[in-house]
Amino acid sequence: MSGRAQLMWDEAVTGYDFGRDHPMDPVRLALTRSLVTALGLDRDVNVVAAKAAGESTLRLVHREDYIDAVRAASADPEAADQSYGLGTLDDPAFAGMHEVSALIAGQSVGAAEAVWRGEALHAVNFAGGLHHAMPGAASGFCVYNDAALAIARLLELGAERVAYVDVDVHHGDGVQAAFWEDPRVLTISLHEHPSTLFPQTGWPGETGASDAEGSAVNVALPAGTGDAGWLRAFHAVVPELIADFRPQVLVTQHGADTHFEDPLAHLAVSLDAQRAVQVACHDLAHEHADGRWVALGGGGYAVVEVVPRSWSHLVGIAAGRPVEPTTLVPDEWRHQVYARTRQPAPHRMTDGRWPVSWAAWDEGYDPADRLDQAILATRRAAFPLRGLLA
């Protein structure tokens, strides 16, 4: 197996553009790619452009009538069928939507294939992580669910156990829905509580269908949760489940919208904590999945201040050359940012909170604490279904 990581990238993915006033500005992808270069990280990865996902691949997750609707909306955006979630405020139709959505999906599928076949130990597609798309509908800025498609391709190639860990601020509802009845896939999502954030799902009691009970795990975090609470919740739930499940591949989604500067949500997580979870996911892949790790992007709407730095850290970790938290942002990149966006770029690669710390769950919990209540609700709902102590 090659020890060299793959970075999936095709400049055309920046065509995933819902319009000028939409929060998901594709400049976040371009700025991430240029920061990876400015930091010299692309010298430590193989940069690969995979082909777009074809019809048969898309149908591993998506219904044929939905794919047809996306094609039709892509050809004529004014005629988008809103019954499929297309042409809405969240998912406006645009020319070429099918092609670029399939291209992003193809990068995640290509990442999964490379890791499964031993062509790379780790593979990153930060343009991916579009986890809200459902089998028959667009949702939450997501047209095709590349994360679910990557997992489905792994299963098609012969994988018997795939774990998916989603740390986006929003519930990974589309991936959960795709594998709700499939015990071969363990989905774990840590997200802001559904009572305060889209898509209003991801309650602790959502644990999988009757034939796959315990295959879905949800941690619903109170609004305002910061670094210590976020890391406490992650480490109180994820490592034990991954160790028990013993996945052959770990697929992770790293939406950057947990950050305290993100305009669309209400958690208060720093870049330092995001980096800590990225390191933890890397280590879990090596401890329990022979190092096989597919890492995806996701949400993130502080498109200059947060997203490029967070995902550049992800690339560095996957490449085996983690960017030190104290690293200054290269001046050349800061000049590019201002020239392109007329916004000032950050000066440091994190928020200056390294090393981040948290209290371990096995040291005890406070039943009156809202965060601990959330963790306990998850453990009580899901852990016994997997034969684990709550």
From TrEMBL:
<dbReference type="InterPro" id="IPR000286">
    <property type="entry name" value="HDACs"/>
</dbReference>
<comment type="similarity">
    <text>Belongs to the histone deacetylase family.</text>
</comment>
<dbReference type="GO" id="GO:0004407">
    <property type="term" value="F:histone deacetylase activity"/>
</dbReference>
<dbReference type="InterPro" id="IPR003085">
    <property type="entry name" value="AcuC"/>
</dbReference>
<dbReference type="GO" id="GO:0045150">
    <property type="term" value="P:acetoin catabolic process"/>
</dbReference>
<feature type="domain" description="Histone deacetylase">
    <location>
        <begin position="22"/>
        <end position="315"/>
    </location>
</feature>
<keyword id="KW-0006">Acetoin catabolism</keyword>
<comment type="pathway">
    <text>Ketone degradation; acetoin degradation.</text>
</comment>
<dbReference type="InterPro" id="IPR023696">
    <property type="entry name" value="Ureohydrolase_dom_sf"/>
</dbReference>
<dbReference type="GO" id="GO:0040029">
    <property type="term" value="P:epigenetic regulation of gene expression"/>
</dbReference>
<dbReference type="InterPro" id="IPR037138">
    <property type="entry name" value="His_deacetylse_dom_sf"/>
</dbReference>
<dbReference type="InterPro" id="IPR023801">
    <property type="entry name" value="His_deacetylse_dom"/>
</dbReference>
<protein>
    <recommendedName>
        <fullName>Acetoin utilization protein AcuC</fullName>
    </recommendedName>
</protein>
<dbReference type="Pfam" id="PF00850">
    <property type="entry name" value="Hist_deacetyl"/>
</dbReference>
